[in-house]
Amino acid sequence: MPKNIQSNDTDPAPTKPPVQPKVFISYSWTSPGHQDRVRQWAERLVQEGIDVVLDIYDLKEGQDKYAFMERMVTDPQVTQVLIVCDKAYSEKADAKKAGVGTESQIISREVYEKVEQAKFIPLACEISDCREPYLPTFLKSRIYIDFSSLEAENENWERLVRLLYGKPLYQKPQLGKPPVYITADTKTPASPAIGKLATLEQALMQGRRGINIYRKDFLSACIDFADALRVRERPAVESLGAKILEDCEKLKVARNSIIDWVLLESAVDSSGAFREALMDFLEKLRELKSRPEEVNSWNDAWSEAHSLFVYETFLYIVAALLKTNSFETLHEILTSHYLAPASERYGDEKFETFGCFYGYSDVLQSALAPPGRRLFSPAAELVKRQADRTDLPFSSVMEADLLLLLMAFVVPNVRWYPQTLHYASSSEFPFFIRATQHKHFLKLGVITGILDVDALREVVKAGHKRLGVDQWYDFQLSFTPFWKRLNMDKLDSLQ
Fold first, then answer.
1. Domain count, the chain
2. Does pTM surpass 0.85?
3. 296 and 184 in one domain?
4. Which structural domain range is residue 89 located in?
5. Residue pLDDT, tens place only, 394-437
């Protein structure tokens, strides 16, 4: 197998803690019960790390309550004002009556005169017989949060807290690069799989019949898109490296669609239909790196783009299944055998282990290596460069690669070389560290099929010898031994 990569990842910068919100709650003293309900919300917000200004806490005897209200509403340190709207609040505000009327005038002036109107958040805690929330006139056009019942409160609490922290569940993604079919010299159609995945997702969420049909339609679109990019005529040798890079960039569309599918269905599947579909799909994915049956003249270098696509996609599939805790599915795909493509069946050898998804590249050495240097693994360099997903960063891909190495130790006749781990440097891998605890080791046991830690250690030692890991010299001098990376000495040592 090809040898290793040259440069290492730097450790990611630490995540900054979120800015602590400060909110003022405006409400009407409708009844002792209503006041107590608002107090409970305030206490719960404080427990969530949100600084709350509330009259029963902060308005003292001798203070001017109207000045207090105006100061809180206009104070720039108050990041949001929660306006608790019930029938009494709305009526007093519209009639400009009592404290609520004065306070609402302050708020309405702020709402209409200031640019940042999102500071004011209506909480609709009472609904009319017409199923409309009671909101004062100056807030009727505003988007509100439904707190009209205990069920609505529980359902929308996370939404409120996320809003106060400025961390909504759905955020507009950063502006990306133009798609390759826009910037490439050659014309590449957009993948129809994107739309078909959206249809499948909608069908799943709505519980429609015929999910298998939507799924098959989507997966066929992925395979057809990738197959259309396969080389079927002798390419120009002098530009082969550039063409491989160009095709790998184009194939990212299919890669991402497949990852999105795995994340979607593995998280919700309970019938086993997804697992069966995944096994069938993996065989079709494997075929993409083989010689097309209609082609007679062939060189393996021609299929390097698809070999790398299959390898990269398989790494991401494993990472996605780890993310969704799909341990039984991982066990099945890593211990099963796959029917080899017709053009690669020799004699009685008709089935392959998961090692068939491994990929490497010789051609990309000159295309990716800095001048005067040589990469240990151009394939891993490419995977790293293309690791642009925030939900599955490159660290997740490396962790998947480490799991595949472990399974290569466990499963007979599998060969796997963990190319991406040349970028691991001092990285630690949470899945294996957590397996120090018994409950998390059991997850690893489901994947490997070995629930006794001593038995697993013996199998790993034998696999280590079988694969000749001691001869992988590029790893030995500057990298943590695989035994330690796998946390083998500490597995299942804590309850």
1. 2
2. no
3. yes
4. 22-165
5. 999 999 999 999 999 999 999 999 999 988 887 789 999 999 99
